[in-house]
Hints:
Elements: E1 6-10, E2 43-48, E3 55-62, E4 65-72, E5 82-88, E6 94-100, E7 104-107, E8 115-119, E9 125-130, E10 133-139, E11 147-153, E12 168-171, E13 177-181, E14 187-192, E15 208-213, E16 219-225, E17 231-235, E18 240-246, E19 252-259, E20 267-275, E21 278-287, E22 311-317, E23 323-328, E24 333-337, E25 348-355, E26 363-368, E27 376-387, E28 394-396, E29 399-402, E30 410-411, E31 415-417, E32 423-427, E33 440-451, E34 468-470, E35 475-477, E36 482-484, E37 489-490, H1 500-508, E38 526-527, E39 535-536, H2 537-540, H3 546-557, H4 570-578, H5 584-587, E40 595-598, E41 617-620, H6 630-652, H7 669-676
Parallel strand pairs: 40-41
Antiparallel strand pairs: 1-2, 2-3, 3-4, 4-5, 5-6, 6-8, 7-26, 8-9, 9-10, 10-11, 11-12, 12-13, 13-14, 14-15, 15-16, 16-17, 17-18, 18-19, 19-20, 20-21, 21-22, 22-23, 23-24, 25-33, 26-32, 27-30, 27-31, 27-33, 28-29, 28-32, 34-35, 35-36, 36-37, 38-39
Amino acid sequence: xxxxxxxxxxxxxxxxxxxxxxxxxxxxxxxxxxxxxDGTGRTRALFVGSNGSLLRQVYTWSADQLARQQTCVERLxxxxxxxxxxxxxxxxxxxxxxSTGFAQITAPVNPGSNRSYxxxxxxxxxxxxxxxxxxxxxxxxxxxDETFNFMAPQTADPECNGRFSGPTIQFDADGxxxxxxxAYWWWYADLNYVPxxxxxxxxxxxxxxTVNRTGAAPTTFNYRYDxxxxxxxxxxxxxxxEEFFYDSGQQLLTQRSGNVVGMATEWTVDDYIWLDGMxxxxxxxxFTSSFTRNLDTQASCNRFGEPGACGIYDIVNDYLPKxxxxxxxxxxxxxxxxxxxxxxxxNRVPVxxxxxxxxxxxxxxxVQLPTGTATQYRARALYNxxxxxxxxxxxxxxxxxxxATSTGQVWSPWSTxxxxxxxxxxxxxxxCGSQCYRQGVQTDAIEYRRFEAGVVPMxxxxxxxxxxxxxxxxxxxxxxRYLDATTGRYLSPEPYLQRPRYVKARxxxxxxxxxxxxxxxxxxRYSDRTGLxxxxxxxxxxxxxxxxxxxxxQQMAGCDGNGRNNVSCGCNRDIQNCMKGCDVCSILAFGQGxxxxxxxxxxxxxxxxxxxxxxxxxxxxxxxCDWARIDELxxxxxxxxxxxxxxxxxxxxxxxxxxELQPSVMCSPYELTFECTQPPWALxxxxx
Length: 688
């Protein structure tokens, strides 16, 4: 079934565009005055379906920051828009989000969907407020603390009745989080970074995780990596495993899951299709133990117990890009719509609520989901503490029953929720008899799916660019590091801090390099696909191939992979000789420049440089960002970087006529670019 086109409105909203008015009676329109062109090329709106009849998102920008995002899903019967407004400090760190129309807790806390963040001068988050419940983050010794406590609420306010609201993380001598635990260590995970016989990889990624729950035997997950430090396999306790396969652009192509005991069971396989750096489709299939594909209409496509249906699913991404909509391709029905927490959790509501025993009421928490007359819901709860007497259980609307003693960090089963009722987490009974000494229940979060009737709800494990969700640790795998979305921090320090030239380049821009913070504490504008460095939406958002082209340009320039010039490379040696020792590798360093700007009148691949402290700007045409033209864009970036080398040399020798700065034609950026982009044999010399 064809649901219509997916449209991204870039830079300009013409006065005749339909997004200027409400569609289907829902006010999800562009702000007044937005019909004027801003000439930036950034995304102003996303429409799915005819005139956005399925989904619409409108983005309002203030200077270079996203100020507001409006979302309307008419297909699900939504009658009120979902809106998020963002605030920032002077260093562009996200300081708050005010939301309307989101899932919100209605009991025991006051209604609301607001967040606020506070930071110290080193970029560490120090306070975190959710719907009026304020919590502090404590550190023992600065960034690389011995213990990191995301502690209980500051007050006894009933809005914060959870007795402990976040993780405690302990760090080793190298600044890596080696243990993550929840309330009173009812659950904790030991994170091992030492290579073993089953796994290898960089020091910044975990090789195995041992999960410990009070009253239960420890379970161990092992992670294996390839030569590019990409995670290739995850082995589960009880003989289950997942394999991950990537393309040459480091994008996830296949995720294969199954039980390997005797190869007796079926495999569930997700194949991804990518376009311009975005996942645009997922093909869920089922295979026999001999890897013969089952018919989609006959096979079960559950993944580790989570219900799923075989078939093709279309994925729609927003401006960043991250997945926001999944459609069942055959029927065109909505399999899930995602609303994100600031730091990447999808359709997840922090619910810091709990009850001891004996409890005065069976009610633990009440959460109102986004409304929609045609919406179906499925939800589950994450419990930090689950210590119940025999015969007492925790339920979600009478289903998804969990009964346990002395355990924590437990996901309940999925439960189907009526569209007219809120999610209610309750105790089945307040009677505890002789076992009233038990701790009761404390919730951490509610996660939900929003979908249409007649389709099995589905969602991908992909989150923010470059990330994949791990349920066993509640962390995001981010290629070279692991991220804790609750705190907005990586578990290991920034690897690029060990590269002096990169640190120097950042200092020259007047910006800091947070040791642990994700995306400079601003995930609304910035992303980090690799766990190594932050990229700007202005570059990646407009040009999906920017990262890969910049990496190729560094290779062309003879940069050694550590941000240093390798003068054994003929290209790099000639740049050094001709450009007065210019440090071209620092100019090409990730996150520095050249920055991109578009010019519709330029020829494909054409660029020119505007002098600046670190690389100036490179003006290109959108066609230069095609995946088939990565080398052309890399040549443009390298060429403009060498123009900046000219500018630096001219500043050093301002008393010398400009033409004398180039003693031979071989020293012009044009000739150097030609030399650096030719194979060594074409220049009559061996490879370095």
